């Protein structure tokens, strides 16, 4: 009986452009200084800035300066040094309105409190607006006030229509100013940066890099904060580079995926690390960040096996193996399926034994993987049958299979102080995760097509 080679999807994948780049040891600016000397200087600057925040707490007349300080620290990516001081300051700020007649102060207060999850009402801004969402004619706002209102308005909730109108108004006014010839170049750069995307939607590491340049040209910049931001960015850049090199040259190399799985997989260890870096860049999240990156690498293998390798019969059998989490059943399908199940199971076990991850969290993650496997199988069936699903059916799939939902579940169990109740809640696919995952899947599909 003639043995037929299964008909598999035809894929042509480019090698990653980044892995070799990050394998090269290139010196960074400031590398002529020892790490110890830089960290000693940072400790001095952290102490000075901490004292500055504490003074803003102790004297109510300094609350406005405190708001500007906190805003700058977080934009520059160094707010994590002052989490306790900022929390105390924000509690004071929440109890003390800064100024009912100062648009800049009121907008900045609203922005900071909303960003830190205080349930501050939008009514504190209504007094500055007319019924059309425009600023009252009696107000003559400067650029800082417009920028602050612009950022605040983008933190609106449903049905806060006045903030939605404020977005339109401030965008038009700032665009007009930026296109004119009246703004100094540093101020114009700041306006254009804001118009490109509001702060809370930006990737924090990129925002820090970009805002250091903007703040460096600000005549009112605090030199201690600026120096701290530059040194901190340098130290974290070195740490992140070492992490991505460890991931791509050691852990990933030991996986040997091209040999164990085949040419159909996307080799993207650096890109997977970047996903993790976008979620948590701070030094104290080094372990969760590496766990997140490893999981994302393995999830890309899982996705590619369904999309770019398996026949319909094979992925049906593989889905059954995943539902029972049966490595032996996966081994009977083929070597790549056995390896994939084995390396995922081994990695999850290492998270528990070596990294201190929660067993409950791992179990919740496995349950999520089972749901995702079902959805991936359904997409293969649709593709084979040339079936176009209804919008409702598509959305049901998208909410589970979204490239964002799995990392959300992962990040919950790798934050070491998470309780078992949090894992159970996340695994129930609550509305906030369902909607966010659906949005991310739609954005991914739009970008891909």
Discrete helix count: 22
Question: Major sheet, described briefly?
Answer: none
Q: If you average the pLDDT, what whole number results?
A: 85
Write down the secondary-structure element order. Answer: HHHHHHHHHHHHHHHHHHHHHH
CATH domain topology of the largest domain: Glycosyltransferase
The CATH superfamily name of the largest domain is Terpene synthase, N-terminal domain
- Overall geometric form: globular
Alpha-carbon distance between the two ends: 43 Å
Q: Helicity level, as a percent range?
A: 55-70%
The counted number of beta strands is 0
Question: What are the SSEs and their pairings?
Answer:
Blueprint: H1 19-23, H2 35-58, H3 63-75, H4 83-95, H5 103-115, H6 123-126, H7 143-153, H8 161-179, H9 185-196, H10 204-216, H11 223-255, H12 257-260, H13 269-279, H14 286-308, H15 312-324, H16 327-333, H17 335-353, H18 359-384, H19 391-401, H20 405-414, H21 420-427, H22 431-448
């Amino acid at each position: 009986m003639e043995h037929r080679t299964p008909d598999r999807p035809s894929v042509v994948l480019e090698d990653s452009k980044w892995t070799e780049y990050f394998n090269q040891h290139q010196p960074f600016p400031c590398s002529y200084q020892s790490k110890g000397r830089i960290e000693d200087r940072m400790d001095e600057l952290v102490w000075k800035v901490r004292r500055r925040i504490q003074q803003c707490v102790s004297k109510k007349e300094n609350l406005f300066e405190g708001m500007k300080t906190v805003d700058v620290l977080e934009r520059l990516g160094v707010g994590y040094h002052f989490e306790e001081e900022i929390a105390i300051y924000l509690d004071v700020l929440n109890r003390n309105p800064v100024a009912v007649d100062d648009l800049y102060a009121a907008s900045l207060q609203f922005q900071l409190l909303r960003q830190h999850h205080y349930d501050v009402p939008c009514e504190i801004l209504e007094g500055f607006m007319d019924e059309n969402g425009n600023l009252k004619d009696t107000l003559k706002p400067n650029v800082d006030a417009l920028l602050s209102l612009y950022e605040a308005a983008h933190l609106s909730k449903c049905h806060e229509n006045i903030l939605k109108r404020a977005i339109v108004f401030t965008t038009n006014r700032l665009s007009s100013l930026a296109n004119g010839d009246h703004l100094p170049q540093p101020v114009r750069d700041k306006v254009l940066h804001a118009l490109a995307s509001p702060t809370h939607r930006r990737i924090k590491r990129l925002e820090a890099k970009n805002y250091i340049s903007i703040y460096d040209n600000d005549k009112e910049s605090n030199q201690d904060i600026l120096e701290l931001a530059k040194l901190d960015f340098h130290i974290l850049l070195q740490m992140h580079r070492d992490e991505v090199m460890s991931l791509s040259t050691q852990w990933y190399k030991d996986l040997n995926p091209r040999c164990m799985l085949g040419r159909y997989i996307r080799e993207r260890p650096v890109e997977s690390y970047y996903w993790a870096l976008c979620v948590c860049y701070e030094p104290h999240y080094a372990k969760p960040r590496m766990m997140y990156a490893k999981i994302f690498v393995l999830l890309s293998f899982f996705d590619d096996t369904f999309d770019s390798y398996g026949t319909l019969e094979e992925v049906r059998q593989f889905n059954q193996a995943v539902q029972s989490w049966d490595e032996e059943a996966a081994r009977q399908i083929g070597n790549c399926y056995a390896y994939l199940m084995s390396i995922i199971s081994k990695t999850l076990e290492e998270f528990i034994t070596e990294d201190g991850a929660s067993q409950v969290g791992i179990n919740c993650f496995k349950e999520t993987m089972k749901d995702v496997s079902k959805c991936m199988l359904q997409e293969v069936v649709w593709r084979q049958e040339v079936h176009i699903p209804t919008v409702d059916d598509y959305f049901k799939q998208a909410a589970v299979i979204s490239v964002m939902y799995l990392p959300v579940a992962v990040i919950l169990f790798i934050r070491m102080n998470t309780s078992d109740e949090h894992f159970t809640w996340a695994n129930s696919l609550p509305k906030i995760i369902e909607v966010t995952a659906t949005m991310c899947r739609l954005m991914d599909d739009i970008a891909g097509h």
